[in-house]
Design a protein that fits this description.
The structure is a homodimer of 137-residue chains. The first copy, chain A, is α+β, with helices and mostly antiparallel strands. Helices cover 31% and strands 23% of the residues of chain A. Chain A has helices at 12-23, 30-37, 46-58, 100-105, 125-128; strands spanning 62-66, 73-77, 83-87, 93-96, 112-123. In chain A, the strands form two sheets. In chain A, strands 4-3-5 form a three-stranded mixed β-sheet. Chain A has a two-stranded antiparallel sheet with strand order 1-2. In chain A, a hairpin with a 5-residue loop joins strand 3 and strand 4 (93-96). In chain A, helix 2 (30-37) packs across helix 3. The N and C termini of chain A lie far apart (48 Å). Chain A binds chain B through residues 64-71, 73, 83, 85, 87-88, 94, 96-99, 102-125, 128-129, and chain B through 64-71, 73, 83, 85, 87-88, 94, 96-99, 102-125, 128-129. Strand 5 of chain A pairs antiparallel with strand 5 of chain B. The first copy, chain A, binds a DNA duplex (25 and 25 nucleotides) through residues 6-11, 13-14, 30-31, 43-48, 50-52, 54, 71-73.
DNA sequence: ATAGATGCAAAGGGTTTGCACTTGA
DNA sequence: TCAAGTGCAAACCCTTTGCATCTAT
């Protein structure tokens, strides 16, 4: 039986959430998305944010990822494969280029490599310079 | 003032938990540790497991890490730096060698690299061969 | 009209914490 | 002795889900 493709509607909430990601380049937490999206849809609910993030991720418009040791999931637009540098001082995330070849080489013989997740951590330039947190909003 | 170093006592619970990690080479979840340790200390509590895992990690005897997209934290003995390959089929974790130099090179200029976390994922050999899950207990 | 979407509150899963009791040194 | 450690239950945080209501199409 041909499964009927679920219809997707365009709602104020959904568009507001999409816009938030168009306005921010850095990875966002669900609560950050909620806060930002509420500027357009004041009574937006957190459940809707979660449902929408999940939906947009399934559609491939967003990608979610978690930091080691943190239970929360960050989301950002799915544009180009890259990784992250996490500053333990200001807790911001920075994009880092990927070197697929090297990483793939680590895959044990006979194993099928489908993807990878990498997080570097330490201090970002602003923090290592002794300055306070930078402003990479 | 010289801060008084907190005294560490040797208890049945703590030794039982340590023993669990000596008996298993693969990363374990807190509940798995609980289950295994209860064979020695029947009425061991989950809270004690969490407190002990935290303590042993602070002492450097264990290392904890999380898989992208999973909220749980795995623990294993801190012996030699390495990473993991996660099989999406049988959900087992395999050790993978590390290539520090390459990863460190990804660190943006001016940033201080203190560490990194890498997870490769795909199919392990047994699963890609069409066989059921292997037995890498 | 009607299936998809929303908001709220309740429920879930993992982890932490408060507190009285127990125990190792 | 007595502070460190433990067990239990309640509390927490993040996320999902049930359900009545709302709204694109």
């Amino acid at each position: 039986m041909p499964r009927k493709p679920i219809q997707r509607r365009s709602t104020r909430q959904r568009e507001a959430i999409r816009q938030v990601f168009k306005d921010h380049s850095r990875p966002l937490l669900p609560t950050e998305v909620l806060k930002a999206a509420r500027r357009r849809v004041p009574n937006l609910g957190l459940a809707t944010v979660y449902r929408t993030l999940k939906r947009l991720t399934e559609e491939g418009w967003l990608v979610g990822f978690g930091l080691p040791g943190q239970s929360q999931t960050y989301y950002e637009r799915a544009q180009g494969h890259h990784h992250h540098f996490y500053c333990r001082e200001c807790e911001k995330l920075f994009k880092v280029n990927c070197v697929p070849a090297h990483l793939k080489d680590l895959t044990p013989a006979g194993f099928v490599h489908e993807g990878h997740e990498l997080v570097l951590y330490g201090l970002c330039k602003p923090c290592s310079d002794g300055a306070g947190a930078g402003s990479t909003e």
